[in-house]
Amino acid sequence: MSALSERVKQDLRKIEELAKSLDGRIKIKSTEGSPINKIVLEIKYPTAPSKAYPDKVQDTTEVKIELLSRYPFQEPTATIITPIYHPNVYTSGKICFGTKWLPTQGLDLLTKRIIQIITFDETILNEKSPANSDALRWYRGAISKNPNAFPTDKLVVRETKKTTMSWKNVEGGGEERTLVSCPKCNASLRVPVGKSGNVFCPKCNEKFFIRT
Ligand SMILES: [Zn+2]
């Protein structure tokens, strides 16, 4: 498998993970190319389809992400296929990210940014060089008339907590402790009661999960 197709596979996996943490509010609708160079995402976050927002709301947005020939060194492009009226989106639907693309960043981060854009997250809204200045004028008026209508939603990512305890942070301290033994070498380890997580055996370095 080529480095590019391996990278794209990783990107798709990261998007799937993001989808899970967002309770399925985003979905990979289709992919094209070999290796894959077109990805259509379905995003279930409300946005403004026209000046009629908030009377009219677009509930589902479709975005086409295109990976150019020099991806990941070349920035991917993203085009919104469904109606949207937004200062940072050209009338063609092409999104103006206004940030520098880094090859090390994954398409999950790009997807998060797309969600922030379509929901009018004001922390990333770029009013200095709008892609659609009519939409910017409309947005300024609309937010002063209907301040509660913006952002149109909020991106809340649930971070999955991975607790890793090392021998150091389970030794010492005044908490109640109990003994567990390493499943590999049988060495015993004193750990606080009421904890769960991965620990490393100080003797054989085996990593194992405990719940005390
Ligand atoms: Zn061990």
From TrEMBL:
<dbReference type="InterPro" id="IPR000608">
    <property type="entry name" value="UBC"/>
</dbReference>
<dbReference type="InterPro" id="IPR016135">
    <property type="entry name" value="UBQ-conjugating_enzyme/RWD"/>
</dbReference>
<dbReference type="Pfam" id="PF00179">
    <property type="entry name" value="UQ_con"/>
</dbReference>
<feature type="domain" description="UBC core">
    <location>
        <begin position="61"/>
        <end position="140"/>
    </location>
</feature>
<protein>
    <recommendedName>
        <fullName>UBC core domain-containing protein</fullName>
    </recommendedName>
</protein>
<dbReference type="InterPro" id="IPR050113">
    <property type="entry name" value="Ub_conjugating_enzyme"/>
</dbReference>
